[in-house]
Amino acid sequence: MEVKQFRSDDPIAWCPGCGDFGILSAVQKALVQLEKQPKDVLLVSGIGQAAKLPHYVRANCFNGLHGRALPAAVGAKVANRALTVIVTTGDGDCYGEGGNHFIHNVRRNPDITVIVHDNQIYGLTKGQASPTTEAGYITKVQPKGVMPGAFRPLECAIALGCGFVARGFANDADHLASLIVQGVRHKGFSLIDVLQPCVSFNKMNTQAWYKERIYKLEEETGYDCTDIMAAFQKSREWGDRIPLGIMYRNEKPCFEDAIGLGSLKPLVEYEPDEIDFGEVLKRFA
What we know:
By secondary structure, the protein is of the alpha/beta class. The chain is 30% helix and 16% strand. Helix 8 (228-235) links the parallel strand 7 and strand 8.
């Protein structure tokens, strides 16, 4: 298996230097390391620059509505549990428009992997603040600066007991690929928030800004990612030092097993019933 087997021929529409290129590379490398075949992978996305990623990967793809990637991904996984289901979404798409789906699917714990391209800005719609934009940051839409404090997705996910919580950096594709591999292998909801420099609209959280601050939890002696209090404390680290890596791990029954699907055939293997829809429609006449 080689990376080229997961490369599509579609022209890439991202800005030159965009952090999304690193995330795309990491996804393709991870699928090779996982020894997956394109037919066994489903990439699901909503709307935004991050949502374009499935178009550039040779695999199954579902492109849905803004903020609505998670329900489609869970439905696909329930229907065909043999699929490796990966959501690629942005900070606005997932934490803004899709915030309700994010919170409650963390609680349900379906066996999907969610990769969030977190550039702390709305890139597709030209630079207004997203839920993760820092307070005080000035945009065309917020000329006096962003007023509320930034949403902290890792804190939220850990507080809700998410089984796999990690943070990567778009410009370190090898490290990010290793996180994606571990996230896919984790049975349950896996959140990988990716710090992604936006070269066009976010002039604060640049590649240089991140490189001065990021460090890897693997290099922290004695850090225990199964300790929820230690993980929560790490998730609040932001500013002078920003941790990367697996922040929290917690093995627990996934949604599909919890509702008893493990003992049943996947829906995709059932023969459809013959139904006369004309008779059904008559009831609504």
